[in-house]
């Protein structure tokens, strides 16, 4: 009988379902990482919320682990690459707590508008300070939504019901979807300049970290009120404190903090600052939803191999799996490459299969392309929900099969359409199972897309590769593989290098400063 550990506080429904399905379950919460390491080897499944950190170290000790189930949305507490490399499936419950979290954001918006916590404390101290607490109305105010995914769209719907005007910044939001949601799609600077209230609903990624930085907070309207129910790290907490102290920011409400549990913070005690201890998902209804979903999903997987809402595995029948697996790895890499390189809101994507690939079931391949593509924007996407999310967001997805065979016996081509035009990448399988990029934006380049990669577009000039190599050497960046392609002699050239470590902004800026460099970006696979 498979055995599951529930390591974070979860609704009792989860344990009930595991037991009724024939899965043995232990509920042991509040363990330190060391204590968890000592017992994790006994379990086939681990059911968590946000407290348990599923690190590489824990996974190393989890010799029997097959599945991690997150009763909730964010999986930033799980090392997904480490889990994938150990064959551990990671699942979440992407919709079970969205309404509840959106309601918390709205509750905090009201609390800020009317200074409810301070008014409550003062009244209960017998002060009756009727003149101290002058609030603002929400009606006709502008709400700036940063991130218009599941939770963001529910917040927008509620805010429109409150007769607010909603402006949204989300690179993934299409004009059509914005119109459907009744919001105005704007760029970040416009949102900062126009919003009376700003609410954040993005995952924490390299692009969103510090999205409300000191610099961006300075661009906000005087008197702005800020709400963060998404992830700590989206707002610069020190700059927020300065803005509140100076009076530029009229109020701020944080449910999430850079360091959690947040036992101390310079923000604590600041007038017009409200905080809650990561309560976004904490309602009876949401906790029952996510507990039931995670227990059902994990039981299905452990008992029959059924896969739902996995972040690192497609849903597949046992017969198709071996043949499709390398194609899906190729598809996800091509999607991820084009997602990381495409600029501007995506409008459409076409997935073409040629040669042997044309004979395969296209759905898992499409799912893998879309999951790779959208992972640049959301960490809740997986191969199963990617096509649904793409449809919901108005992305035009086309699948094309060509019977013809070109230079390769099998080929996948992914073309994305943005407002700036079309961009296309193509790849094949070497030896029927090794994914290889063979074309990038019309340039022939052969590369294995893996790990940390440096992407450089430069003018094809003698001496350039030497200069780049010397710079990498000086900076102590070790090159793993080196791939080169060019449009024509003396024209535009592309370099793709796999390197042994992460590259920071300062390093990329030095590459960008080399003569002839047009673009330099860090890519992750
Ligand atoms: N406080 C809580 O208890 C609580 C509860 C649930 C979810 N969350 C968090 O809320 C966040 C949103 O959840 P969701 O379900 O709506 O996720 P989602 O994936 O449906 O939506 C995220 C949105 O952010 C957008 N986005 C990505 N990068 C962006 C960028 N650079 N700028 C602007 N927008 C960008 C994406 O395109 C997407 O539309 C997640 O981080 C989740 O972990 C917190
Ligand atoms: O991402 C989520 O689902 C929320 O952050 C909820 O986290 P919790 O389950 O720890 O309340």
UniProtKB/TrEMBL annotation:
Residue stretches spanning the membrane: none
InterPro entries membership: ACT-like_dom_sf, ACT_dom, ASB_dom_sf, D-isomer_2_OHA_DH_cat_dom, D-isomer_DH_CS, D-isomer_DH_NAD-bd, NAD(P)-bd_dom_sf, PGDH
Record-linked Gene3D superfamilies: 3.30.70.260, D-3-phosphoglycerate dehydrogenase, domain 3, NAD(P)-binding Rossmann-like Domain
Pathway: Amino-acid biosynthesis; L-serine biosynthesis; L-serine from 3-phospho-D-glycerate: step 1/3
Gene Ontology BP annotations: L-serine biosynthetic process
Pfam families assigned: 2-Hacid_dh, 2-Hacid_dh_C, ACT, PGDH_inter
GO molecular function: NAD binding; phosphoglycerate dehydrogenase activity
Catalyzed reactions: (2R)-3-phosphoglycerate + NAD(+) = 3-phosphooxypyruvate + NADH + H(+); (R)-2-hydroxyglutarate + NAD(+) = 2-oxoglutarate + NADH + H(+)
Catalytic activity, EC: 1.1.1.95
Segments forming domain ACT: 453-525
Keyword field: Amino-acid biosynthesis, NAD, Oxidoreductase, Serine biosynthesis
Domain of life: Bacteria
Family the UniProt entry places it in: Belongs to the D-isomer specific 2-hydroxyacid dehydrogenase family.
Protein's job: Catalyzes the reversible oxidation of 3-phospho-D-glycerate to 3-phosphonooxypyruvate, the first step of the phosphorylated L-serine biosynthesis pathway. Also catalyzes the reversible oxidation of 2-hydroxyglutarate to 2-oxoglutarate.
Protein name: D-3-phosphoglycerate dehydrogenase
Species name: Stakelama pacifica
